[in-house]
Amino acid sequence: MLSVICESPGVLRAEERDLPVRGDGEVLMRVSRVGICGTDLHIFTGSQPYLEYPRVMGHELSAVVVEADADSGFAAGDGVYVMPYLSCGHCVACRQGKTNCCVNIQVLGVHRDGALTEYLSVPAQFVHKAQGVSLDQAAMLEFLAIGAHAVRRADVSPGQRVLVVGAGPIGMAAMIFAGLRGATVVCLDTRADRLEFCRSQLSVEATVAVGPDDAAQLASLTDGEFFDVVFDATGNIDAMNRGFAFVAHGGKYTLISIVPGQVTFSDPEFHKRETTLLASRNATAADFETVLEAMRAGRIPDQALNTHRMRLAEVPDAFPRLLEPGQTVVKALVEC
Ligand SMILES: [Zn+2]
Ligand SMILES: [Zn+2]
User: Fold this and answer.
1) Where do the domains of the chain lie?
2) Which of 101, 173, 282, 329 has its CA at 20 to 30 Å from residue 139's CA atom?
3) Residue 319 to residue 136: CA distance in whole angstroms
4) Which pTM was predicted?
5) pLDDT in tens, 65-98
6) How far is the CA of 39 from the centre of ligand 1 (A)?
7) Structure confidence at residue 283 (pLDDT)
8) Which ligand neighbours the alpha carbon of 146 most closely?
9) What CATH code would you report for 2-139+301-335?
10) Distance 140 CA to ligand 1 centre (A)
């Protein structure tokens, strides 16, 4: 089967590999679509700190079942999506139902080989039927679920003012689900094309470009009170540190980003607001369900989000171009 391997930073190669052998309790699938995400771009550029090369990337996928145990509930031909965070089921986090931050987590395409290939075998508990959505849509569930998880973590409620800093796909997902909860959403980013996309496709209330007067603009949008909930989805330490100042008194700050570094803030400023600080990592099965429901109801602009497409064999040549800002990529899908 054709597989695309990231040999080392900057080097992608297509090669033939043996078909995976289905283990006990696993579902063997033919991969249909794979979404390319910031994580993959970081793996490719070598800025994913704990990754061992070579690696087959790809953790956002839809597939069609080839073979499964008779009692698994799956039959050949079922359209499925995969929750790529393989959790252990017995650690302190898993025992609390927080499989998204499992101590022993193995993420497909990061800790073990992922979906940029033709066939994949995964334990059945991480495979779910993609009922009522297309295989394109099913491959877009994962990044949307990360946004849905963050919004659930922050318990966004109707009428709240929400600021999302960072208008990449994850930030956009947070905007969508905060909006679906009835919040008024503003986004802040450096890129004019991304802000324009948020205005036209995600019906945010306002967009602000990062610049010398951005804080003044955010203040004037909120009568000087700033935001009940601020999400950071920038992956930029300076932006993460700066975001504390955009939280209203009594508000919450949710960091979806992860960076190798120290987050710092002024304690008097933090304390006087009684800021709630949250991290938001990955997503759980419940978040995937939230996204599926919204998708089935036609409330996700998934066709607009899917800006680029390529076939598996084209990935080694086409992938590097996704890094060019001029390409205005939101979500690229690979057809396997
Ligand atoms: Zn992803
Ligand atoms: Zn665990």
Assistant:
1) 2-139+301-335, 147-279
2) 101
3) 19
4) 0.96
5) 999 999 999 999 999 999 999 999 999 999 999 9
6) 6
7) 97
8) 1
9) 3.90.180.10
10) 9
Spacing, Cα 86 to ligand 2 middle (Å) = 9
Q: Give residue 155's identity as a one-letter amino acid code.
A: D
Q: How far is the CA of 37 from the centre of ligand 1 (A)?
A: 5
Report the separation in Å between the CA atom of 275 and the middle of ligand 1, taken as the mean of its atom positions. 28
Q: Give residue 89 CA to ligand 2 midpoint distance, Å.
A: 5
pLDDT value at 47 more than 90: no
Question: Could you tell me whether strands 161-165 and 119-123 are parallel, antiparallel, or unpaired per DSSP bridges?
Answer: unpaired
Length of the chain: 336
Q: What is the pLDDT of residue 327?
A: 81
Please give the CATH topology (third level) of the domain spanning 147-279: Rossmann fold (3.40.50)
User: Residue 160 region, left (φ>0) first, then alpha (ψ -120 to 50), else beta?
Assistant: beta
Residue 329 CA, ligand 1 centroid: distance in Å? 14
Q: For the chain, what percent of residues have pLDDT higher than 70?
A: 99
Residue 320 φ then ψ, to 5°? -60, -30
pLDDT at 48 (0 to 100): 78
Same fold? 2-139+301-335, 147-279: no
Any idea which ligand is nearest the CA of 115? 1
Task: With cut-offs at 50, 70 and 90, classify the pLDDT of residue 203.
Answer: confident
Cα of 246 vs centre of ligand 1, distance in Å, is: 27
164 phi, psi to nearest 5 deg: -110, 120
Q: Which ligand sits closest to the CA of 84?
A: 1
Average pLDDT over the chain reads 96
218-227 residues labelled b (16+ CB within 10 A) or e (exposed): beebbeeebb
Distance 102 CA to ligand 2 centre (A): 4
